[in-house]
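job 3f2a | input accepted
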Amino acid sequence: MQTSPAQSLPRPESDRSRSDEGRPRVDESRPDQARTGRPRVTAVLVTANGGEHLDRTIDGLVGQTRHPENLVVVDLGSTDGSTADIALGGSAGLVRLPAGRPFGEAVARGEHEAPVAPDDEPAEEWLWILGHDNAPAPTALAEMLSAVEIAPSVVVAGPKLVAVDDPSLIRAFGESTTRTGRSLTLVQDELDQGQHDRHTDVLGVAAAGMLVRRSVWRDLGGFDPALPDVDAALDFCIRARLAGHRVAVVPEARVTSAGPIEEFGRKRVSEARRVRAHRQAQLHRRLTYAPAGLLWLHWLTLVPFAIGRAIGHLVAKHPAAVSGELAAAFSVAFGSGVRRARRNVQRTRRVGWAAVEPLRVSWRRLHEHRTTTRDVELARVEDAPIARASFLGDGGVWVVLAAAVLSVVTLWPLLGTPALTGGGLLPLSTDVGRLWQNVGYGWHSIGTGSTGPSDPFAAVVALLGSITAWSPSTSVVLVVLLAMPVSALGAWFAVRKVTTRSWVPVVGAALYAIAPSLIGAVTTGHLGAVIAHLTLPWLVLAVLEAHRSWAWASGASLLFAVVAASAPSLLPVLLLGWLVSVVVGWRRAHRRVFIPVPTAVLFLPLVLEQIARGNPLAVFADPGVPSATRAPSALQLAIGQPLPDWNGWLPVVGSIDAGAVLVALPIVMAVLALPVGLLAIGSLLGHRWHVASAALVLALVGYATAFGATHLTVTGVGSTTTIVWPGSALSVYWIALVLAACVGIDVLPRTAPATGLVATVFVGIAVAPAFAAFTLGNAVVAPTTGRVLSAYVNAEAQANPDVGTLVVDPQPDGSLAVALERGQGSTLDDQSTLDATALRLSPAGTRLTTLAGNLASRSGYDPEPALRELGISFVLLQDAPSDDAAQAVYDRAAGAIGQDARFTSIGETATGRLFHYDGQVDRVTGGSAATRATHVLYLVVLGIVFGAAALLAVPTAPRRRRATSNVIEAEEPATTFDEERDE
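job 3f2a | predicted structure (983 res):
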């Protein structure tokens, strides 16, 4: 860069011969008023990679009507070549400092290198501080010198900082603080209409363009080294005020500014760094100015208050500010700059804080500032496009109510029941504390007991049970009963997001509420699949909106975790969808990046444990009670059916003609599903083909996942294994298909209403028998009182909660299924996929099976040691199925145990014959102290991660600003100076 015009800054002759007419007369008897000649100004220009602005700033210096006598350019390690070829001569010089040095240090170095007026030529010296982006207007220096000559008590003057690209926009004009020490720019980002030009007395000014008396600069020690950029100028001005001087703004002087001081020399400043800089400056000044008697109190509260403010940042949707808040508190609390700053203030202080009180910002003004910052957000919300459909006015509420009525009619046997059982369901523990005891890494009493991680679904179950703490199992009943209306509600909002016609979301909500995968999961007791189904539409909506705010992104992270924990088989689909959303929306992907973090924290212990066992695919096993599932065909999966019974039509019409039914049913079911498929594919022909194609790709991934689930057998059920439930993946397939079909309806011509109605009616006919499963007696789920074992065992468990019951279940193939239950019996929160997917028996499990096999037949085996060591006091021989082999095993076991003198027959129970062991058994102990400590630590980690996400997910709304006065604070002059000096 060539700077030959700036090699010398000559004094224009017009300046030398300027007339003194009109200037105030000087009282020569006053020492501080004695004229010492023309003021000498040294401009200190700090640059750091300022090639974009430096030429303009130097041209502004050259074009001044009143030139500075000296110029010192301080380069802070510029790498853009802006000062590589600079050659300054005459009264100008160049100083180079390493990159990263504070702005205040650069100014101090420039002041040190600047020449001093000769002793034989006494003159009042001034420093003019500029950054590379502070191009001054031609009269800027002259206006500020005129202002300080008129008011000799003013030792610091600041110009009006305006935008580089728009001089009519005020960037900053005057600074002050609140009563608690928070810095505040008095005028910021306002259109300049001269509304603030009448008020010049302020508490502080910005460093950019600051004109300061050099003797005062040296006496006060310059900028505080502990304030590298933010609030450095404000702190200096406050110390000048406390020293008895004045600080003023000169509205006639204009200097450009490209951004706040923390952005000086940086391409980008992260939110965390910005928060840390401002908060650290505030805390440092608070400790610096605090009375000696209260200093210790301020220091002790630094870190606790920082933690509280960090939580507040989470609630206010500013997660990036959390690290900055904490870092600032620790830096000030354990830094070394406060002591030096306090000594400097005490050395130069001449007046008390009451003298500057009128210049501080009042609470009313602070409230005005805070509400002003919300105006942009409020305007954005108010100016947003009108919603495509109204939930109350366009049928949304009616389709949800219809789904609720359908749920009541379909699930009427479950109304009023306290708990559910059957399929994958069992009642929950009656104690909420026990629910949370089963969450995370720790001791789990299922089977013979083991130490390890729980299923992530245990956290979902514990949360549900806590909602109805008086009866935890009631929450499961409510989820099942509300699944249809909640699914309809979520689908309505998800469809509204991608369509424009007001009635189309009704069609989508109806289609999703009667999905075959939902009713199949309800009737077979797959609670996790039910929760995943009703949560998926909300997750889709939250991911689509995640770029807008941290509330949406955090809500998406929580929903992501709920879906993954409830249906682990969806992990590949969820991760793939998340990656696509990040890549497609990469410009605003910083919020979506963190969506899987809570899920990773939830799944990490289980994943590591399954990998250590050599069975990583077992991570995808269904949570809950293991239950046998028959695999549907590829065609049945294509029309959304998770079971091979053709949505319940096979049991209904199978007795007519089995051969004809097997041929006709696939054709009929395919025809009934055809309208939805045609609408989905036809959506590619409309103008919203990109949305439809994304939905169809998601549907394809969901179908592939369901197909893969039917070929993955990792869970043991009795003497056999079962596939992963495909219904969860079919829920993904169905919501994507519904979204695509609704996009197709949205772009169709006048036939759209009839087409949507036909598609909904056809799907309703296809799933009709499935909805009548409870009436037809085909449902696996049944209401229960909540008691798992007999009343006799429950009574014993009151005194000994760890009492063991050996459950022997005859199998159709002639084998025995063996389980060990503690206390009142196994509950849903006790279940563990680690136990259900174990590749081999543990030593205790081997002993248990050996014991059961010998008890079920006559042998010379002595069961007493095993019964005592395992803590077994009861043996429950469950009723056998109708198979001959199972009945034979049952009869043999009943005879063997009944004839053993060590056992007393209690009698028949609701589930089988109960026997009591009359001998002494040992009390089973839980995990070690280390295990319990690990369990607590893991719960704390979960609480922090999910608590932070929950706080961020809580929506906040901006408040309307109330119009107040636009006048700068302190219309009356401050009392830090002798007013008579300026007369």
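job 3f2a | The chain has three domains: 1-13+29-269, 396-430+471-783, 789-917.
job 3f2a | closed
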